């Protein structure tokens, strides 16, 4: 099992990161977000609650923001990545393969803005059930 922390390099690991909590009836995770335009829009909308959806080993849910696709958007990401799916105005939290993955990769439905990383084991997201209320708040 892989774990993610804020040590190292990459999205959500710099000195200007912002920490958020994402909670649902079965658990809570902490995520560290890089200072991107999408992150700033998301922070301005906090706190908010949405209904969880699942797609393979990914949890996603609508947000109250509609940012543009950023130049470094990616479709294949690491487990535990916090991504923003601009096509659905949703946060996407993959923890394993999706229906369109090749092998064990985390392949999102389309390119997404990469915001940061979940702190700890992203497989905790497997406890999210479709329809669960998910709340995102600043830590």
From TrEMBL:
Domain of life: Bacteria
Pfam families associated with the record: Cyclophil_like
Limits of the Cyclophilin TM1367-like domain: 21-136
Record SUPFAM superfamilies: Cyclophilin-like
Record-given protein name: Cyclophilin TM1367-like domain-containing protein
């Amino acid at each position: 099992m892989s774990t993610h922390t804020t040590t190292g390099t990459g999205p959500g690991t710099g000195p200007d990161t912002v920490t958020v909590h994402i909670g649902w009836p079965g658990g809570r995770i902490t995520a560290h977000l890089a200072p991107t335009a999408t992150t700033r829009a998301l922070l301005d909308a906090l706190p908010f609650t949405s209904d969880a959806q699942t797609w393979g080993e990914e949890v996603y849910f609508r947000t109250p923001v509609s940012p543009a696709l950023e130049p470094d958007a990616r479709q294949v990401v690491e487990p535990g990545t916090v991504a923003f799916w601009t096509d659905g105005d949703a946060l996407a939290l993959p923890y394993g393969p999706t229906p369109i993955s090749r092998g064990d990769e985390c392949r999102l439905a389309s390119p997404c803005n990469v915001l940061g990383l979940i702190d700890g084991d992203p497989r905790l997201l497997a406890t999210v059930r479709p329809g669960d209320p998910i709340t995102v708040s600043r830590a």
